[in-house]
Amino acid sequence: MILGGSRAQSEQIYRALAEAIVDGRGRFGSDAATITRLLKTEASYENCSRVAILAASPSSFRRAQVASLKLDEVEEMVPDIRESALGMAMELRGCRASLLMTSTWHRLGGPMSSSVERDRGGEFPIFTYCIFEVLERCPEERSGVNLEDCPDYPLFTWCHEDGDLHPLRRPKAKCSRDHYAIDSFIQKVRGVSALVFASDYLCRGSRPESAWFPQFLEADNVMLDAEFDPALPVHIAVDSGVFTGAVFLQVRTASSGCCLHCDERVNVFANYLAEGQTAEASALAISSFADELCGSARRRISTDSAGGTRNPVGPTVIAEYQRNGLVGKRDLLQWPKCHGCVTDGLGLIENLVRSADGNLRLIVHPRCKHLIAAMRSYARTRRAGQWMDYTADPQHPHEDLIDALRGGLNLMLREGRTPQQSFIRAKAECLLSS
């Protein structure tokens, strides 16, 4: 069975079977004789095999059992449908169950991102390919005999970037020999942004234009140097809700006496994320995690002031945190709350990620996988085709960690700021008389 992300995706599979098998011809002939019947919804083969081509929907896989399941464009499937479809694959008549998932990797925090992470953990193999692997061979009429005409084409940057790795120092288009037309490729380069092109056509990971922190790069902002320092106080910022997110922060100061925060660097050395836990369970889990990671280091613990709102059950989140010992040296602090504090907090994170002068002042430890995913996935909302200057809502679980980071930074850096010297008050008659 083949499930497409939509009816249009499933019809593409039908057309691909028709072009490649029924109508296709090659050096070794055709495979048209292997198919007895080909419809838009199914294909029947001479060996009695049958393939159903369906759009992913709750009714498509009801009571269905197949030995081989192929899911196309899993990024476009509703999560509940995708997870339910996985239950159809099972061993039948001695044929072992197999699963193949294909999709463009363009959605931050989507199923393909999680599959790549699981592949890195060794759970199953994953194969990637980019447009250069299906591109036609670049002829000399276009590139020149010695590649002297290559810089005139918009593909030059991507085509030649890895030329030094090839034994003969050949660009990628000179190694291709497939069907995708170079002119169509050039049209894609001119028609989409660099971020979308790298994601959709070069398979370099998802990074849409909607990202709120486009300057956050794992190569620059994720380092082992952000490890816990027992000589510095620890600030734990907790955002409560259906998802409970917490970040563990420390501020390193190189020197003092300079401009405001110019020598401060924020290290995030741990994070915590849980779903569906009570305030009591979250408080105990975070406290235990902090004891294990930070020992007896000085702690400041803060949370959203909205946690003081009484819920239908009775006790407030803040009261539960205090009752279960999730407090710091100065009890449980609350984040500053004022008009524009969310926008200001996000601006502060942007400045710490990479300021205009290129300085990096927010470093995240590699163990903070949830926060790293949140920094890459946190997005703006879109209205009438335009990206707006406010966040999409909701964005669980990413927003729960970003809110914790924003609130903790607002409180930490606000407390450390030197207050500006106020003007000396004097009566006007005293000034005029003198």
Walk me through what this model shows.
This protein is α/β, with parallel strands linked by helices and 434 residues long. Among the domains are: 2-103, 3-Layer(aba) Sandwich (Rossmann fold); 218-415, Nucleotidyltransferase, domain 5. Helices cover 31% and strands 18% of the residues. The strands form three sheets. A six-stranded mixed beta sheet has the order 2-3-4-1-5-6, with helices on one face. Strands 11-10-7-8-9-12 form a six-stranded mixed beta sheet. Helix 9 packs across helix 10, helix 11 (341-353) packs across helix 13 (398-416) and helix 12 (369-377) packs across helix 13 (398-416). The N and C termini lie far apart (94 Å). 27% of the residues are buried. The model is unreliable at 255-262 and 415-423 (pLDDT under 50).
In short:
The chain is built from 14 helices and 14 strands. By secondary structure, the protein is of the alpha/beta class.
Helix proportion = 25-40%
- Biggest beta sheet attributes: 6 strands, mixed
What CATH architecture of the domain at 218-415 do you see? 2-Layer Sandwich
Kindly state the number of beta strands.
14
Question: What is CATH's topology name of the domain at 218-415?
Answer: Nucleotidyltransferase, domain 5
Categorize the overall geometry: globular
SSE run: EHEEEEHEHHHHHHEEEHEHEHEHEEHH
**Spatial strand sequence of the major β-sheet:** 2-3-4-1-5-6
Report the total helices.
Answer: 14
How would you classify the helix and strand content by structural class?
A: alpha/beta
Low-confidence stretches: 255-262, 415-423
CATH class value of the domain at 218-415 = Alpha Beta
In terms of quaternary structure, the protein is single chain
Mean pLDDT: 80
Which percent range describes the beta-strand content?
15-25%
Rg over C-alpha atoms, rounded to the nearest angstrom: 28 Å
- What is the CA-CA span between the terminal residues? 94 Å
